[in-house]
Amino acid sequence: MATYEVYLGGPSSNNASRAAFPAPTFAAAGAAFKAMRPTQHKGRFLNRVLDFGKDMGLAHFIRTQLEDGAPVTTADILGALMIPQNVVVHGAFYEVEVAGNAALTMTPAFRVGAQTLPIIVCSALSKGYAGISEAAWSTSNASVLAGAPVIMHTPDMLDLAVTAIGSGFGALRLNIGLLISDLTSGEY
């Protein structure tokens, strides 16, 4: 099992040729990670769109891993979304905007907090919402997020554990995010 950092933001990369990925290794106690804040223009959401078909940096990283004999496989972790400290996470959302290859599934989980969200089937178009402790994604407009919010006292990372990869990511475009309250910011 390998962990690959593919988040955006945070400390600058020292990769050869300034390649975007892998991003610097996440460290909850690191000063650069503790200094991160949510961007004000995004409002109450943190999200990351992983576009394996059109994001040239991500596609290059995946191709390079394959060429180097270390392809992303089942049980590997993609560090996808950095979560700043001093935020309250109320729930999560996802949307598979472009389906990936057959049999592709991923499970979101918080690296530091260890909470796990429901599995995402990435081989078909879908979307859903879940509270932090819910066992399944809700797809109904009438649903209310269950479970207590989680306060992030330290930075955390929303990881995507590859639970099945089949023949790779294909053209997968996955939007995953969190509904948050920022405890350190004033009015927007």
Walk me through this protein's architecture.
This protein has 2 helices and 10 strands, in the order βαβαββββββββ. A 5-stranded mixed β-sheet has the order 1-3-9-5-6, with no helix packed on it. Strands 2, 4, 7, 8 and 10 form a 5-stranded antiparallel β-sheet that branches. The longest helix is centred in the first third of the chain and has 12 residues. It is globular and about 45 Å long.
Keywords:
188 residues; 5-stranded mixed β-sheet; 2 helices; 5-stranded antiparallel β-sheet
Low-confidence stretches: none
- In terms of DSSP E residues, the strand content is 25-35%
Mind telling me the C-alpha Rg?
16 Å
Spatially, the strands of the biggest sheet line up as 1-3-9-5-6
Derived structural class: mainly beta
In total, the number of strands is 10
Level of helix content? under 10%
The coarse overall form would be globular
Question: How confident overall, as mean pLDDT?
Answer: 86
Number of helices: 2
Largest sheet: 5 strands, mixed
Q: How far apart, in Å, are the first and last alpha carbons?
A: 41 Å
**Secondary-structure element order, as H and E?**
EHEHEEEEEEEE
Short description:
The protein has 188 residues and is mainly beta.
Secondary structure blueprint with pairings:
Blueprint: E1 3-5, H1 31-34, E2 45-51, H2 56-67, E3 77-83, E4 87-98, E5 105-110, E6 120-121, E7 126-130, E8 150-152, E9 156-164, E10 173-182
Parallel strand pairs: 1-3
Antiparallel strand pairs: 2-10, 3-9, 4-7, 4-8, 4-10, 5-6, 5-9
